[in-house]
Amino acid sequence: MTRVSVIIPALNEEAHLGATIDAAFAAGAAEVIVSDGGSRDATLTVARSHGARVLAGERNRARQLNRGAAEASGEWLLFVHADTLLPPGACEAIVRSNADFGGFLIDFLEPGWRLRYVAFMVNARTRLTRAPWGDQGHFARRAAFPGYPDYPLMEDYELARRMRKRAVILPLRVRTSGRRFLQKGVFRTSAINWAVVIAYHLGVSPERLARWYRT
């Protein structure tokens, strides 16, 4: 039987992680793996109490994702952020797609026209480029998964670029938190995101971009 393993990188996500794990199992996951990067809150306790397997290691999202993939038992690997809820039927849709790589469309959990506008633009960009970003959920057939590049930032973007010709965008929508947009402002956050993408294409290293992005 085909198995879908859901892999969630986490760092101090006690407030969001339980709902994310529950949604993953409800979406059809055979197993959920939380790959932790050194949480100091109750993230690990929450993960275990909701039925997830926990892996502990260094803080680096690409390495956390790859560590989870290496330990997963599924034929299919589905990577979601700790504040992202999978829709019902997501795992079945992945298997039926028979694609090597892909992602979902997106909605935000919080209300407001600004976040609806961001979601509209993200979905339009995704349909055009067939390169979903990490907060939209990435899935990959194990045999086709090359691993996330060992970058401190842009690991999801680069993987999607490399896999674009084999990608499928499923019409289902994940629901993710827009907390960063709300904290820093929708338009400022969008501008920062695109400035980072442009700088990356101009040859700025992921290490330098990570320093800029996290200040």
Provide a concise account of the structure shown.
This protein is α/β, with parallel strands linked by helices. The chain has 9 helices and 8 strands. It is globular.
Account of the protein in words:
The protein is an alpha/beta fold and 215 residues long. The chain has 9 helices and 8 strands. Helix 1 links the parallel strand 1 and strand 2. It is globular, with a radius of gyration of 16 Å. It starts with a strand and ends with a helix. The model has no long low-confidence stretch (mean pLDDT 95).
Spatial separation of the terminal alpha carbons: 46 Å
Poorly predicted tracts of residues: none
Order of helices and strands: EHEHEHEEHEHEHEHHH
The CATH class is Alpha Beta
Q: How do the strands line up in the largest sheet?
A: 3-2-1-4-7-6-8-5
Which secondary-structure class do the elements indicate? alpha/beta
Strand content: 15-25%
Q: How many domains?
A: 1
Measured as a percent range, the helix fraction is 40-55%
> What's the shape?
globular
Number of helices: 9
**The biggest beta sheet, please?**
8 strands, mixed
